[in-house]
Amino acid sequence: MTSPYVKEEIKKGISTIEFFHPAHNSLPGDILEKLRKTIQEAGENDAVKVIVLKSGGDRTFCAGASFKELISIDDAETGRVFFSGFANVINAMRKCPKFIIGRVQGKTVGGGVGVASATDYCMASKFASIKLSELNIGIGPFVVGPAVERKLGLTGMSQIAIDANSFYDAEWARQKGLYASVHETTEALDEAVQAFAENLCNYNPEAMKEMKKIMWAGTENWDELLAERAVISGRLVLSDFTKETLKRFK
Predict the structure, then answer these.
(1) Which of 37, 65, 196, 200 could join 50 via S-S bond, C-beta 3.0 to 4.6 A?
(2) In this predicted structure, what is the pLDDT of residue 249?
């Protein structure tokens, strides 16, 4: 079984950042921290003009946070730190001065929907259905909510957050604004992502940097907001309801 990793390849101005975990690309804290750091460093690297964010494997883009770590939380501070993992990645993506292209090849759940939502331009395969499952286990998509709402609107975010059992297909996500395009195969997706990234490399980096600032206007408080949301999740995960629900997964 392949070990978890975050790796970066820089070629012709394109930084391709890939994350992987054998458990359906569910991400533990150490991998989330590596991902945050890699995104930040790519943003600061003058050799990088555009970033492509992808995951390894072909079935699941990201199944959210590590369930194993979630089950082991036994105090509020550990909970806060755990839920801050995705908050830190989303904020690194938000503050990165380079455009980030998302390449979503398969299903994405919970925190993974937040990561896809925090990309600047997201492309997907037809297998890339989405689900916000947090309510199922007695918490809610508090940390990723602002990023998802920014892309899907309050109505779309509310719909998938309340309907926590259902996957919504890639075409629904495209119509709501999460995906810019949906492709029939992973191969077609990869070709489209590569062509799009290469084209962006022809543009003025300063113009793209200024555009990104404008596109993310109004999110300047997210460092504090997402930290506050992590505290809510950290508290709820200790509730009797959630503890009882999580026992079913042990």
Answers:
(1) 200
(2) 73
